[in-house]
Design a protein that fits this description.
The complex is a heterodimer of chains A (about 300) and B (about 270). Chain A is an alpha/beta fold and about 300 residues long. Chain A is built from eleven helices and 13 strands. Chain A has three domains: about 170 residues, P-loop containing nucleotide triphosphate hydrolases (Rossmann fold); about 60 residues, no CATH class; about 60 residues, Alpha-Beta Plaits. Chain B is an all-alpha fold and about 270 residues long. The chains are: A alpha/beta (about 300), B mainly alpha (about 270). The complex binds adenosine-5'-triphosphate and magnesium ion.
C-alpha cells in the first residue's frame, strides 16, 4: 500500500494553470524530493495534499483517506514554507499546544525541542527567534506523534550546514521506521544524496519521476572523464584519446553513458602515461535543467 | 475537549502577553470607579438601596462597554492568524475549525468575565461602603453579571464572524467599529425616530418590540431593567418596551451567542489559508 497516491491532479488559479495532470506515488519509508523553479507549483501541490486548498480534477489518497480528512490529518505532518508562529508564545508553549492538539503528552515538548537543538531557547518568546530557530520549531512540530507521512516544504531553508546534515539524518531515521516523506527543495546537492526518488515539476507539469540513476540514463547527458596524466604527457594523451587538454596534466573527455566502459578501456590501455581518472556523471543541476527545458520548448509556440 | 482547552489555553496566554487582559480589566474598573464616584451623592429617602441604583447605572454602562471590549478582543481572531500566516499549519492538525473557534471563545469569555467581575466588584464595594442596606441589590447585581457575559458572548461571536469575513485585521477592525456604532448607538435612535414618526400605529405596536428584542444589546437592557422594578422608571425607552415580556428578552440574549457562533463557524469554513 502506498502512503500517498496522486493521479491527474489539476489546479487552476483563474487563468493560471498551477498544476496540470500531476500523478505520482510515495511508498512507506520512501523519501521523495519535489523539485522545480519558483512558481512551478510545489507548494500548491503540498497544500492540496494536506487538504488546505481544493483541486479541480484528479484523485488523491493520503494514507487511504481523503486529503484533509480527520483520519488523514491525524497521521500527516506538515512544515509550511515560511512557517510562522505567534510571536508572543515561547517555543515550549507553542510545542505544548501542538502536542495537546494531537492528543500527545505535552511533557514531551522539551525533548522535541532538544532534538532540534532548541533546548536553551525553549523558554524565550518565538518573536525573539532567528529565522533558522523558527524553522527548527517547525521541524519539531512535524515530529509530533509518529507521523506516517511528512510533507515538508523547503525544510532546510534558513538552516546552517550542520543543522541541515542533522536534519537529513533525522529524516533517515523516520524513513527507516516506515514514514513516507515528500519534501521540496532548491538545494539540489543535498537532495541528491539524501532522497530515494525525484519528481520534477515545470510550470505545473510533471516532467520527471524516477530515481536519480534512472533519470541520468533517461536524459543521456554526456559523462565527463577527467584524465590526469604524467607530467608532459597531456598533449600526447589528448591526441590519442581525441580529448581536450585542460592544462599540463589534465585531459577532459565527454562521452555517452553507453560509451563509458569503452572509453575507460582506451584510457587504461595508455598505461604508464596515465596518473588517474575520474568519472563525473551529470550533476543534478544538469539533469534538472535538461528536464525543465523540455516543457519550455514544448509550451513555446 | 482537550483540543478546545489547548486552544483556549494558548489564546489566554497570548491575550495575557498582549496586555489584553490588563486593558479589559482596567477599562471596566476605570468606568465603574467613575460611575461610583458620580453616583455617590446621597439618593435621599427613596427607599431604594444604593446597590440597586448602582446596578441600574452599570446596566447602561455595560450596554456600551461590554460589546466594545468583546469586539476589540475578537476582531483579530481569524484575520490576525491569516495575516501572520499561522493558519495553514494549525489547520493541518486533527482539530476542527469549530473547535479552534470555541477555544478562542472560551479564553476571551474568561477574560471578559474577569474584567466584568472586577468592574462590578468595585462598584458594588463602593455601594456597600455608602449604604449598609446594599445587600438588597445583590440579586440584581448577579443577574447583571451573567447577562453581561451573555451579551459579551454574543458580540465575541459576531466579532469572529466579521474577522472571518474580512480576512484582514484592518478591515475587520473597521467592520467591528461600524457594527458597534450601528447596533449600540444608531439602532436605538433609528427605532425611536420610527416610533415618533409612527405615532402609536402598527409599527409601534407590532414591529418595534420585535426589532427591540432582536438586538442583543436592547434585549439585555430590557431584561435587566424589567427585572428590577425599582429602576423601571429610569428606563429611557418608550412605554411600548414595557409590553415586552422579560422572558422573550432573555431568550434573545441566550440565542444570540449560539447564532453568532454558528455564523462565525460558517464564515471561518470559507477561509482558505
Ligand atoms: N492563492 C493563489 N492565488 C493565485 N495564484 C496562486 C495562488 N497560490 C499560488 N498561485 C500560483 O500558482 C503557481 C504555483 O505557485 P507555488 O507557490 O505552488 O510555487 P512553488 O513551486 O512553491 O514556488 P517556490 O519555489 O517559489 O516556492 C504560481 O504561478 C503562483 O502564482
Ligand atoms: Mg513554494
Amino acid at each position: 500500500m502506498t502512503s500517498l497516491t496522486l493521479s491527474q491532479v489539476t489546479k487552476t488559479f483563474g487563468a493560471n494553470r498551477a498544476l496540470d495532470g500531476v500523478g505520482f506515488t510515495v511508498a512507506p519509508g520512501e523519501r521523495v524530493a519535489l523539485l522545480g523553479h519558483n512558481g512551478a507549483g510545489k507548494s500548491t501541490l503540498m497544500k492540496i495534499i494536506l487538504g488546505l486548498i481544493p483541486f479541480d480534477s484528479g484523485a488523491i489518497t493520503v494514507l487511504g483517506a481523503a486529503p484533509g480528512s480527520h483520519a488523514a490529518r491525524r497521521k500527516v505532518a506538515y512544515l509550511p514554507e515560511n512557517v510562522a508562529f505567534h510571536p508572543s508564545l515561547t517555543g515550549l508553549e507553542q510545542l505544548r499546544y501542538y502536542l495537546r492538539l494531537r492528543g500527545e503528552r505535552p511533557a514531551t515538548a522539551m525533548d522535541l525541542l532538544a532534538r532540534v537543538g532548541l533546548a536553551d531557547a525553549a523558554k524565550r518568546r518565538i518573536g525573539t527567534y532567528s529565522k533558522g530557530m523558527r524553522q527548527r520549531v517547525g521541524l519539531a512540530q512535524a515530529l509530533i506523534g509518529n507521523p506516517r507521512l511528512l510533507v515538508l516544504d523547503e525544510p532546510t531553508s534558513g538552516l546552517d550546514p550542520v543543522s541541515r546534515r542533522e536534519f537529513y539524518a533525522m529524516l533517515d531515521g523516520l524513513a527507516a521506521e516506515g514514514a513516507a516523506i515528500l519534501l521540496s527543495s532548491h538545494a539540489l546537492t543535498e537532495v541528491e544524496a539524501r532522497t530515494d526518488r525525484i519528481v520534477i515539476l515545470s510550470k505545473g507539469v510533471m516532467v520527471a519521476n524516477d530515481t536519480l540513476a534512472a533519470l541520468r540514463r533517461q536524459a543521456a547527458l554526456p559523462i565527463h572523464l577527467h584524465v590526469t596524466t604524467r607530467p608532459d604527457q597531456a598533449d600526447a594523451v589528448a591526441r590519442s584519446l581525441d580529448g581536450a587538454r585542460m592544462n599540463g596534466v589534465t585531459v577532459d573527455l565527454t562521452c555517452g553513458h553507453d560509451q563509458k566502459l569503452a572509453r575507460l578501456g582506451q584510457i587504461t590501455a595508455l598505461g604508464a602515461m596515465i596518473e588517474d581518472v575520474e568519472v563525473i556523471p551529470p550533476s543534478l543541476e544538469d539533469l534538472y535543467s535538461h528536464f525543465s527545458r523540455q516543457t519550455d520548448t514544448r509550451t513555446q509556440p | 475537549m482537550t483540543r478546545i482547552s489547548a486552544s483556549a489555553g494558548a489564546e489566554f496566554r497570548i491575550a495575557l502577553r498582549n496586555r489584553w487582559v490588563t486593558i479589559a480589566v482596567a477599562m471596566m474598573a476605570l468606568f465603574s470607579m467613575v460611575l461610583s464616584a458620580a453616583g455617590s451623592a446621597p439618593t435621599g429617602a427613596l427607599g431604594v438601596d444604593k446597590l440597586s441604583v448602582t446596578v441600574a447605572s452599570l446596566t447602561s454602562l455595560a450596554v456600551y462597554l461590554v460589546p466594545l471590549v468583546a469586539l476589540l478582543m475578537s476582531f483579530d481572531a481569524i484575520a490576525g492568524e491569516v495575516e501572520r500566516g499561522t493558519l495553514p499549519l494549525v489547520l493541518t492538525y486533527p482539530v476542527s475549525r469549530a473547535e479552534l473557534l470555541l477555544g478562542k471563545f472560551v479564553a476571551h469569555l474568561a477574560i471578559l468575565a474577569l474584567a466584568v467581575a472586577v468592574g462590578y466588584g468595585i462598584a458594588a464595594g463602593a455601594a456597600f461602603y455608602f449604604d449598609p442596606r446594599a445587600s438588597a441589590g445583590l440579586p440584581a447585581l448577579f443577574r447583571l453579571f451573567w447577562t453581561s457575559l451573555l451579551l459579551g458572548a454574543a458580540f465575541l461571536a459576531i466579532g469572529y464572524a466579521l474577522s472571518a469575513i474580512a480576512r484582514r485585521p484592518g478591515a475587520a477592525a473597521g467592520l467591528a467599529i461600524g457594527l458597534w456604532l450601528v447596533m449600540i448607538v444608531l439602532y436605538d435612535l433609528g427605532l425611536l425616530a420610527g416610533v415618533v414618526a409612527d405615532g402609536g400605529g402598527y409599527f409601534t405596536t407590532h414591529v418595534f418590540p420585535w426589532l427591540l428584542i432582536g438586538n442583543p444589546a436592547d434585549a439585555f437592557r430590557l431584561y435587566n431593567l424589567a427585572a428590577s422594578e425599582a429602576t423601571a422608571a429610569a428606563a429611557g425607552i418608550s412605554g411600548a418596551a414595557n409590553t415586552i415580556p422579560p422572558g422573550q428578552a432573555l431568550a434573545s440574549i441566550l440565542l444570540w451567542p449560539l447564532v453568532g457562533l454558528g455564523l462565525a463557524t460558517l464564515a471561518f469554513r470559507k477561509v482558505t489559508p
